[in-house]
Design brief:
Blueprint: H1 2-6, H2 13-34, E1 43-45, E2 54-58, E3 64-69, E4 76-78, H3 81-90, H4 94-102
Antiparallel strand pairs: 1-4, 2-3
Length: 103
């Protein structure tokens, strides 16, 4: 991504430098975020929590009356923020993202 950003005239040199610095620290930061914290609230995370891994049951009027999660291949015990972050980066409609940004 850094190499591509260097060729984009819209991206400032300062932003490219930040991306370069981030690439050196991103893996270790991601590992740190995923570490289990025994003194925090923890749950069993799905690990691939997005709308295509949910099945919905509808009534005759098209209202959701039940749902289940499927495809439990990447479960991990840890902060519920992991699944929430994954879902918010993959599944909401644009209107939902705009409301989140406003809040």
């Amino acid at each position: 991504m850094t190499k591509a950003a260097e060729s984009w005239s819209e991206v400032s040199k300062q932003c490219v430098e930040k991306l370069k610095n981030l690439q050196n620290a991103a893996y270790s930061k991601a590992c740190e975020i995923g570490k289990l914290r025994e003194d925090e609230f923890n749950v069993i995370n799905h690990g691939d929590f997005w709308v295509n891994n949910m099945m919905f049951k509808y009534d005759d009027n098209g209202n959701v009356i039940d749902h289940i999660f499927v495809d439990f291949q990447i479960c991990v015990y840890g902060t519920p923020a992991l699944d929430l972050q994954y879902y918010l980066n993959t599944s909401p409609r644009e209107e939902v993202l705009i409301i989140i940004k406003i809040c």
